[in-house]
TrEMBL record, chain B:
The keyword NADP does not apply. The lineage of its organism: Bacteria, Pseudomonadati, Verrucomicrobiota, Opitutia, Opitutales. It comes from Ereboglobus luteus. InterPro entries: Permease_MalE (IPR030802). The chain crosses the membrane at residues 7-25, 45-67, 139-159, 226-245. One of its GO terms (molecular function) is phospholipid transporter activity. This is ABC transporter permease. PANTHER family: ABC TRANSPORTER PERMEASE PROTEIN-RELATED, PROTEIN TRIGALACTOSYLDIACYLGLYCEROL 1, CHLOROPLASTIC. It comes from the Bacteria. Signal peptide: none annotated. Keywords: Membrane, Transmembrane, Transmembrane helix. One of its GO terms (cellular component) is ATP-binding cassette (ABC) transporter complex.
Amino acid sequence: MKKEIQKERFQSEPHQPASIGQARAPVGVEVSNVFKKYGPQTVLTDISLKVEPGEIFTIMGPSGSGKSVLLRQIAGLEQPTSGTIRINGHDPHDPDTRDRFAIALVFQAGALFNSLSVYDNLALYPLEHRIGTHAQIRDRVMRALKILSLENAVNKSPAELSGGMKKRVAIARALVMEPQLLLYDEPTSELDPVMSATISEIIATLKEQYQVTSIVVSHDRELALTISNRVAILMRGELLSLTTPGELQHTDNPEIADFMHPKIDLKNPRYKTMGA
Amino acid sequence: MNRIITIFDWLGGAVIMALRAFRMLPQAPRILKRTFEHVLQGGYASLPIVSILSFFIGAVLALQAGLTLQDFGAKQLIGTLVGEALVRELGPVFVAILVAGRVASATTAELASMRVYQEVDALVTMNIPPERFLVLPRLLAVLSYMPILTMVGIVIGWIGGAVVCKYVGVIGVEPAEYFQSVSAFLTTQKMVDSLLKAEIFGFVIILIACNTGLRTKGGPREIGFAVTNSVVYSLIAILGLDYFITKALGGS
């Protein structure tokens, strides 16, 4: 069964792995009535949304609103307490779904394998899944590094990289998988504004060139408003708004407006009314 | 009650992990390189410390036994005592304790860090089973180097005893006489039982180390706790299993 799925996935490249640049059908994601609880704490409450194939869908919200938790459910790393998540009709938690579709997650801190060089980090997926010869894998890795302008980092260890480079390597590693669904967890966090803009450009470029469906969890207003097709706002684990960036800028919801355009108010500081 | 559930959850997790890992045995050729790396890191790198420790265990045994047996006029039995003690008990147990301190702690630290810093999650999203990538190479490695380390430990322990017998004046047993005494009661079955014990200890130690590491949640502090727990659980398992394996092997 697994072999058949693998075969089906790579049938477009019988003699060589699909090189980076060959578009593969993007997938759609459907989240229906998802609840997630950790013990007594409810982190996600009745989340329903649909991500269309090929779009950049950004999930925004304040810290602790459940954005990354939702992304982990979509990636299949955790299962919802109730409700369903489907990727083209398949459960992301099922390993066969990961065999059927290439789903890549770019972690907030990169999650690069520290014991491996940058090259080995990128080559791991095709090597482990036996996709192509060593020469073909090398070619595939080098192309991904070139796209992210990381050729000079090929032999470096992740420990030698800056924060921005780590994120780019993590994106390159995802790119080597030729993903049909690319998930980004806070791709611009802890980066300077220029590097944040660079990462946003990369996300948009990858979507344009490879038609990959992208779900981005971010605090970054610029990223959300500039490159997203649609934006979901999550607050206290609830989906507050699902709209286009244009409409989001003119929202009449005071909570969302405050989140999007916060003003420092020294007379009535927010921390005095904030809960734990 | 919660504590009992946690214990069974932990034990069940370890068994499932081992079963999953061994189900991937047909894919072993693709992990040979990593297995060899673990043999080098865990086995080959442990040789010096195993040798030093075993030498002194043999030496101390010979010294203690020599002084006592001399009083009974039975110093020709020193070799038998040292030989038997090392083969039946001290060889596999001390090597296992060393592996628990050296390899299990390092394994847990590495896997716990990988868990905490989401490297294990990255493997899962790449559809690379952690059992194949992280657990199986370590299990195969420990199964290959434990008998060798134990054999080396036993032989060097014997040599330690011989050195004491030769050079400690009050004992004064020649190496030829000592080694004749060592081999007098030694049988192939006893050696096989000893190596079997070592294999079981090694397997359990690495299973505990991997399971503890991969179940770690939290931050750097929890990594430290995981390492401590892994070594403590391993030591308890070694000594507890030692009794039952010895009993199962008919007291040998």
